[in-house]
Amino acid sequence: MNIGIIGSGENKFSPNKRSRAYKIIRRILADHPGATIVSGHSPVGGIDIWAESMAKTLGYDTLIFSPKQHIWEGPHGFRARNLDIAQNSDIIYIIVVKDYPPGYNSRRFDLCYHCEGHPGKKHGDHIKSGACWTGWKGIGMGKDVRWIVI
Ligand SMILES: [Zn+2]
């Protein structure tokens, strides 16, 4: 069983949410003993890196799709990387945050435009994450995709 774990970048987490994310990742790993953990080695850190690191520490096999170019389109860019994650996961956990941490001063999106307009619009209760793009692609491939909002 391949379990994808992806989500928001490190600068979207307050210290409190970061520790909740750690607990959630640990629980997902415990729920899937013997699984291969799939993730995307995001250059902005956060869920991808924490999941990869915890999986390795706890002795899980990992399947890491790292973007080789930091562009959207093109060979081994983010789009191709995201499709690899969706294709190679049986279940995909998308861990995203509800709102921005205090002091966040990069560009803000109040709604997740990846989740807007989908039948599962209940997922529109979190800030934008590229992981949601991957999640919806996974749903299109018939994968079991589970959102967790912190
Ligand atoms: Zn979303």
- Name the beta content range: 15-25%
Quaternary form: single chain
Helix fraction bin? 25-40%
Order of H and E elements: EHEHEHEHE
Indicate the radius of gyration in whole angstroms. Answer: 14 Å
Structural class: alpha/beta
N-C termini distance: 25 Å
Largest sheet, in brief, is: 5 strands, parallel
The average pLDDT value, as a whole number, equals 94
Read across the widest sheet, the strand sequence of neighbours is: 3-2-1-4-5
Number of helices: 4
Number of β-strand runs = 5
The bound ligands are: zinc ion
Shape: globular
Q: List unreliable stretches of 5+ residues.
A: none
Describe the structure.
This protein is an alpha/beta fold. The protein contains 4 helices and 5 strands; from the N terminus they run βαβαβαβαβ. The protein has helices spanning 15-31, 47-57, 78-87, 130-140; strands at residues 2-7, 36-39, 61-64, 91-96, 144-149. The longest helix has 17 residues, at 15-31. The protein is globular, with a radius of gyration of 14 Å. The structure holds zinc ion.
SSE blueprint and pairings:
Elements: E1 2-7, H1 15-31, E2 36-39, H2 47-57, E3 61-64, H3 78-87, E4 91-96, H4 130-140, E5 144-149
Parallel strand pairs: 1-2, 1-4, 2-3, 4-5
Helix pairs in contact: 1-2, 3-4
Residues 112, 114-115, 123, 126, 129, 132 line the site of zinc ion.
For the structure shown, list the relevant keywords.
4 helices; 150 residues; alpha/beta; binds zinc ion
What's a quick, concise take on this entry?
This protein has 150 residues and is α/β, with parallel strands linked by helices. Helix content is 33%, strand content 17%.
